[in-house]
Amino acid sequence: MKNFMILIREDAAIMANMSEAEAQAEINEYMAWVEEMAKTDNYISGDPLEPVGRYLKKDTIHSDGPFIESKEAVTGYVLIQAKDIAEAVELAKQCPVYKHNGAVELRPIMKY
């Protein structure tokens, strides 16, 4: 099995304008997705990210937000394991992020 990171990318404005009920419904959808992956031993871990942060270069802070001049932000991550990238893609396709036209970035984790 190989490990993969799924970076969840969502429209920051949509997320910020959700009601508490809408946000809870979204959380429930993510929990159901994770629970399905856990049943097949594909889920390793994951968490949402807070909407604050810093974007840094060597000597400067370029942005006080978690993203630069973009409406799309990385709002969370999920670590999974799969036999290959094709299986990882199938797991990532089930992510609830697509409901709001979000996207995921799927990256194999290098072992050395």
UniProtKB/TrEMBL annotation:
<comment type="similarity">
    <text>Belongs to the YciI family.</text>
</comment>
<dbReference type="InterPro" id="IPR011008">
    <property type="entry name" value="Dimeric_a/b-barrel"/>
</dbReference>
<feature type="domain" description="YCII-related">
    <location>
        <begin position="4"/>
        <end position="111"/>
    </location>
</feature>
<protein>
    <recommendedName>
        <fullName>YCII-related domain-containing protein</fullName>
    </recommendedName>
</protein>
<dbReference type="InterPro" id="IPR005545">
    <property type="entry name" value="YCII"/>
</dbReference>
<dbReference type="Pfam" id="PF03795">
    <property type="entry name" value="YCII"/>
</dbReference>
